[in-house]
Amino acid sequence: MWAAEVGPGRDIRVKGGLVLIEGAPVPDVVLDPADGRQLWRSPGTTTKQVRLFDDVVLISYDSETVMLERKTGAELWRTPEVVTVQEGTLVQEGSGRTWSVPDPRTGVAKWATARDEFSNATVAAKLVLITQDQDGPGDTVTAYDLVTGAQG
């Protein structure tokens, strides 16, 4: 067995074969569950969300989202935009008024669609459902194919 010093006021989570030690004011730490050795530290201190996605780790900070290689912590890409993991899919809310489904390793959009200011995206049943708040009673929901982005 093993023991590791993690500092005060820290949250400990085990996800995807990694031990995540989270909590400000110091960077998040990722430990190997087999021996407790530190694998890597996150590049920031004010983490809002840590999510595992395939072989990458998504870390959301106050002003950006960073994708890191799961085993080494090497940065793959970063964006000032909000990226979430829903039903095993990355969804990016673009500041340029778009919704997109980015590739987890490159950040390049597999597909994107325009969005209005007051909209929301939800992944369900192999679809991306985008709700749009319209003036008056006529709000809309539009379904897009998760893989291709085809409207249908």
TrEMBL record:
Residues 30-146 form the Pyrrolo-quinoline quinone repeat domain. InterPro entries: PQQ_rpt_dom, Quinoprotein_ADH-like_sf, WD40/YVTN_repeat-like_dom_sf. This is Putative pyrroloquinoline-quinone binding quinoprotein. It holds the Pfam family PQQ_2. Coiled coil: none annotated.
